Amino acid sequence: MRREIPLIITFVAGFVQLVDFFVPHPLVANAASELRQWSVIVIAASIVLGIGNLLRIHLFERIPRRTAGWPYSIVLLAGMFAMMITGLVWGVGEGTPFNYLFRHLKVHLDMTMFALLAFFIASAAYRAFRVRNWEATLLLLAAVIVMLGRVPLGSLLTRGLPTALQLPVVTEWIMNVPNMIGFRGIMMGAAMGVMAMGLRIILGIERAYLGGE
Amino acid sequence: MIRFFERLQSIDRRVVFLFVAICVVLPFLFPFRLPVAVGRSTRGLFDEIEGLPEGSIVMLAGDYSPDGMPELQPMTLAVYRHCFSRNLRVISVCLWPEGPPLVEAAHQQVAAEYGKEYGVDYVNLGYTTGGPNAMVEMGTSIPGLFPRDFYLTPVEELPLMRKISNFADIAFLVSISAGTPGTREWVQQVQSRFDVPMGAGVTAVSAPNFYPYMESGQLLGLLGGMAGAAEYEILIEQPGTAARGMDAQSAVHLLIILFVVLGNISYLLSRRRESEA
Amino acid sequence: METIGGLGWVETVGIWVGAFLTLAIFSFLYRDNPVYKFAESLFVGVGAGYWLAVLYQNTIRPNLIIELAAHNWWRIGPLILAVTMLLRLAPRISWISRWAIGFMIGTAAGVNIVGFAAGDLVNQIYATIIPLKTPTLAQSLNSIFIVIGVLGVLIYFFFSREHKGVLGTGARIGIWVLMVAFGASFGYTVMGRVSLLIGRIQYLLFQWLPTIPSLWQSIGG
After folding, report:
1. In chain B, what are the domain boundaries?
2. From C54, C188, C194, residue closest to B249, measured CB to CB
3. To bridge B90 with a disulfide, which of A169, B122, C31, C198 should be the other Cys (CB 3.0-4.6 Å)?
4. What gap in Å lies between CA B38 and CA C184, rounded to an integer?
5. How is domain B40-245 classified at the architecture level of CATH?
6. What is the ipTM of this complex?
7. CB contact, 8 Å: B130 with chain A?
8. Do C196 and B20 touch, CB atoms closer than 8 A?
9. Domain spans of chain A?
10. Is C48 exposed, middle or buried (0-12, 13-18, 19+ CB in 10 A)?
C-alpha cells in the first residue's frame, strides 16, 4: 500500500492533465482545472514546509548547540520573523510595513548578492578564457563580438565599415542563426527528454521521486 | 616585456575588481552618451503593442525578483508607459513571489504620469504558486485562480476584471522574466496551447535561449537584458535608467575584453616558452 | 512629518539601511568578514520570511482558507494532501507524504509533457522545415545553414554510435555551432552581471549619496 497509493495518485493526476489537452469535454476540463488548483495549494504547502525546516534547524539545532557561527542564526531568524510577522499581520500590499522591509532590506540584499558576480565573471574571464584549441577560439570570438556588438560602443567602433561587417549586424546574425540553431537543438533534445521522463513517471516506471524502501 | 606578462598572470584578483568598479562609476560621473541603436527583436515587441486597438487588454507577467531589477524593471516601466500612452489596459500576474511589489511600484509610477485608475485601467493580481499548472489554469479561469488581487480585494469588485474570464480576453501577453517559471513556460503552456500572441523581456543571461522562439514566430518580440530595455526606452522616446546605464555597460565590456586579450597574450607567451624549453 | 530632502525620515532611514547592506555585501570583495556574514544571514532569513508571508496571503488564504469558509468542500482535497506533506516531519508515518509528492509530480508531468511537446518540439520542428530556395542568396544560405546546423547538433547529442563519416562531419558541425552559441551565451551572461552592478552603482550614486547633504542640513551642519 505504501507504494501503490502514491503510484495511483501520480497516474491519475498526470493522466487527467494529459487527457485535458486532447479531450475538450467540460467534465474533463472541470476535473483538470480543480486538480490544477489543488496542485497550486499543495506546492505552496510544500514550500512552507521547507521554510519550516530551515526554522527548525536554526532555532532548535544551531542556536541551542552553539555550533560555529550560531550568532548569525539569530540574525537569520530575526530577518525571517520580521518579514513573517509584518506580512501575516498587516498584509503584503503597497504601503504596509512588510512592503517597507521588502523595499529596503530584501531588494538590496538580493540585488547586491547577484551584483557581486560581475566582479567574479571579470576575474574568471581574465584567468580562464584561453584560446587552447579551435573550439575554444570559436567560443571566445563569438563572446567578444557579442559583448561589443550588443552595446553602443560596438556600432561606434565599426561605423565606417560596410553594413554587413558592422558589429551590431554581425551580432544580430550570430544570435539569430548559429546561436538560434544551437539552442534549437538543445531545446528539441530537452523536450524529448522531458516527454519520456513524464511518461515514465505517469506510468509508474520511474519511481525515484518516492524515495527508498 | 615577457616578464611583464608573466607578472600579469599572477595579479591579485582585487586589482581586477578595482578596475571593474572604476569602469562602472566613471561613465556616470562623466557620461559620454553613446547613441543606442535599436535591434530587430526589440522593434518586434514595440510594433506589436503599437498595433493593438485602443482599449485592448494586455497581460503583463512579472516573473522576477529584485536581482533581476536593473535589467527588467526598466522594461516593465517602458511597457507600461507604452501601453498607457496607447490607452491599452493592463493586468499583471506574477509567478515569482517577489514580482507583485516590483510590478506594483512600476504600475503606480506610470499610472500617475498618465492619470490611469486602479481597477479600471490596470489591475495587479499578485502572486500564485504552481508555475506551469497555474498558467494552464488561467486558460480556464483567471478570476478563479486569482479570487483576490494584490491588495486582497475580491476581483469581482474591480470593473476591469469583470471583463476578463480567460486568455480569450487577452489581446497580447508580455512576459518579463528572470528564469523558471517564466518566458519558456508561458510559450509552452499559453502561447502554443491558447494561441495568445506574445512577446518577452528577459535577463541577458537567459536571452540566447529564446532566439528559437523568435525564429519560429512563437515570440513576436524579445528584449534581452539592460541593452534591450535601453532600446525600448529609446523607441518610446523616454530614456530611463537602462539607457543611462549603457555607457558604463560599454566601458566594462571593453575592459573585460582587454582582460581576455591580455590573459591570452601571457598564456600564448608562456606556452611558447614551454615548447622552446 | 519632518522631511529630509523631500523624503520622509522613514524613507531616508530605509535608504541608509539599503546602502549599508549594499556596502556590507560588497565588502566580501576585499575578503570574507563578519559584516558580510551578517548581511548574508539576513539575506537568507528575510528571503524565507518573505516567501512564507506571500505564500500565505496570496495562495493559501484566498485559494484554500477563504474557499473552505465559503463551503467549497472540494478544497478539502488539497488540505488533506497538504497535511500529509507535513507528516514528513514524523519519521514513522513520513511515508504518507508520498501522496502529496506523487500528486505534485504527476500533475507536473502531465502539464509538462503537453507543454514541451506542443510548445517546443512540434513548433521547433515546424520552424526547421523551411524552403531553402528564397528570394535572396543570403536568406537561402541562412536557411541551408539552419537545416544542416540543427541536424548536426541533434547528431552530436543523440547518436551514441561512433562519430565517423557522415555522422562525424555532422557532429563536428554540431560542435562548432554549439561553441558559437555558448560563446554568445557567455557574452550575454557578462552583460547581465555587469547590468546588475550598474544597478547597484546607480542606487548608491543617485539615491543614497543625495541624502547626505540634506541630512547634513537637517541636523544643522
Report:
1. 40-245
2. C194
3. B122
4. 19
5. 3-Layer(aba) Sandwich (3.40)
6. 0.93
7. yes
8. no
9. 1-67, 73-128, 131-213
10. buried
